[in-house]
């Protein structure tokens, strides 16, 4: 970017961030005291290795946070980033412990009669195993007696195998009702675009530092390592359900439809500890995450927190979440829950109020202002979700993506729209001039809009990409949300360097693929059928996986699988283990390899190979910033 524009942007960013520091009580130390309370031991050397010797986690990547806030980071976000970097093993109360900042989420260890009850074993096996070892080394060796997974997101179950030491006698695993169905829909059915967009949301390929990633809002970053899975054994279905798990009493509150489509919170009366799962955090959460997911119900979210207040708040003395740090003391706990509740209710109600006045989602995102009380309540600020993003999610939940304007019924694709816009504005040089003027006036969103049209028109060359990268970088530098900062900075980085080649390598949770319900697995595969390749195909294929029979039909350029059925006229019958079939369709194995692993084909063997070839292989590194 031109030197004068760079200097102007830097000065404007410094001014914007200085105003944040003046407006908020950044120096308040109460949260730091809570985050450090009960510290028992650090993560040894601050580092966790993967099985091949690479780094799964290194808390020292964030040592730069020891310095004063630089002008390239929103001071409110810098404060949160410092809090989320407080790492190690902590005692919440006698018998309840948390390992924090050794992955994106927390792992909670509860002392039962015979062993540890583990809550949410992190993203990868390496970090969950390290957290368990830290607890055993510090508090004394105990077996794993049970595991609770509060909800259906992989940063809470991907490390399951890291804490299941004895596969011959595994501990029971408690999950919310419909857990497997939603793990399948988010992790497999829509997994590729979610994972691609997640690299933006979590800043997976950003360097850490004052001009890079500083925090992820609810934690530092996702650990890298081996994602695993294990089949749940116990379902929690109803609010008020009680279980005694390894001698500890649990009372459950169903929270499905809030932060995750399958989720529970729980209270332990023996410890007076309320775990709100990810329904509450030390930040305002997302009603729809930028990575993509089912839109969440803000009204239900508020009602769920209120139910927790009714059921548990008068008795509870400690509140833990599966991210960030705890809340200590009944009075603080009750105030926290009421404020968390009201943030979601306010967002829901204001979005609906403005929609009822005829405003569209983008208008609403600019019209809704944060409530007055929020300036002194950091735990409800938008470090992860943001008010402007979440009100659009409310609109989407009620009214869909269409805003009612006829022009938006069949909008032009970005390439066509960009071409027409550039032509209408007088060509690429004129657009570049307008963008430079917008940058000089600190109208960053307008500058970004102009430059985005130019890039998608295939015009403007490196000059347009460089300018847009600079604009997005400074939009990120100013943002209070850690993940919004990551998105802007990742976009800037890809404009300058292109898509990281590591994204082209397919990353799959093979444990999950081998354990999915067959109907979900086959529906996910059918969603990859290429209609051009399937043109003219009309066949049936029997598949037998252990005790499960599946009839797969391809006709009318559509694939359909009927579980529990077979056809006497099918052209072939494939007998195969589900894990082997998962590797076969992913291209990790050939049919000959699969046969060596125990598969067999009766009938038209070539049909099996042809069937597999009808499907696209997902592209984990598709372009976002360019056509």
Structure at a glance:
It is built from 20 helices and 21 strands.
Describe this structure in words.
With 627 residues, the protein is α+β, with helices and mostly antiparallel strands. The chain is built from 20 helices and 21 strands. An eight-stranded mixed sheet has the order 1-4-5-6-7-8-9-10, with helices on one face. Helix 5 packs parallel to helix 17 (518-526), helix 7 runs antiparallel to helix 8 and helix 12 packs parallel to helix 14. A hairpin with a 4-residue loop joins strand 13 and strand 14. It is globular, with a radius of gyration of 26 Å. The model has no long low-confidence stretch (mean pLDDT 95). The chain is 39% helix and 15% strand.
In DSSP terms, counting alpha (H) and pi (I) runs of 4 or more, how many helices? 20
- The share of residues in extended strands comes to 15-25%
Q: Main sheet, how many strands, which sense, barrel?
A: 8 strands, mixed
**Fraction of helical residues:** 25-40%
Mean pLDDT equals 95
Radius of gyration, in angstroms, nearest whole number? 26 Å
**Alpha-beta content class:** alpha+beta
Which strand order do you get reading across the main beta sheet? Answer: 1-4-5-6-7-8-9-10
- The general outline is globular
Beta strand count: 21
Detail the poorly predicted runs. Answer: none
Q: Terminal Cα separation, in Å?
A: 22 Å
